[in-house]
Amino acid sequence: MSDNGAPPSPNGDGSQPAVRDQSKVVVLAPGPGAPAPTGRRPDWLVDPAVAPPSMVRFIAGWLALPPINPALDELYQRRLVLHASKLQWWRGTKLGLSGLLELFTDGTVEVVDTGGVFRQGEVRRRPAQVVVRVQKAGWLSEADLVELVRDEVPANVDLQLFIGDRRIFPVAEVSTAPLVTADEQPTMNGHEEPRSSDSEMKPVS
């Protein structure tokens, strides 16, 4: 305690420390040999070219892509995710769908649609249709292939998906109703009775 009962000052002599004037703070510029500042790369957060393989497959999930088989070639996995990310700009278009399917199937892709640009009042009244034909499913299962295409095509579009000449979507429904033969006649109560021949018919009295 000081003689007047006040606590000692930080400087010990009764004076208060000087407050730094922030307006006079000087920032030194880098010297002649210092590297020039560079802008941050767009892919600075996660780069599929250098990220661990598990992270590359995790990025595919961010892009809503089918799960990537870890047994696939590592360079192919990186190329797949890198190119698929660039195709996000074209998602919902013929170019985007064709490019994505070429990446996954490693084959030729044919996309035919009825879309177009029309003046007001001249839009076609029939529903939009898209026919997609690939030569093979690649390493994807047919179910994953269908899911991939359906995710890329607008929900209001009538979609047909073929592998070669075989249509895999929509799947043709197979009727399970029993067939009625010519010798059987269903009755109103649901039972089947044999058809009467002409010789068994009796005249009505």
Walkthrough of the structure:
With 205 residues, this protein is an alpha+beta fold. Among the domains are: 45-90; 106-116 and 127-166, no CATH class. It has helices at 53-62, 74-86, 94-105, 142-152, and strands at residues 109-113, 129-134, 158-163, 166-169, 184-186, 192-194. A four-stranded mixed β-sheet has the order 1-2-3-4, covered by helices on one side. Helix 1 (53-62) runs parallel beside helix 2 (74-86). The model has no long low-confidence stretch (mean pLDDT 77).
Name some characteristics of this structure:
single chain; 205 residues; alpha+beta; 4-stranded mixed beta sheet; two-stranded antiparallel ribbon
Short summary:
The chain is α+β, with helices and mostly antiparallel strands and about 200 residues long. Helix content is about 20%, strand content about 15%.
The quaternary state of the protein chains shown equals single chain
How would you classify the helix and strand content by structural class? alpha+beta
Low-confidence stretches: none
Strand order of the largest sheet: 1-2-3-4
Tally of individual helices: 4
| Strand content range | 5-15%
Output the radius of gyration: 37 Å
Give the N-terminus to C-terminus distance in angstroms.
Answer: 138 Å
Helix and strand run: HHHEEHEEEE
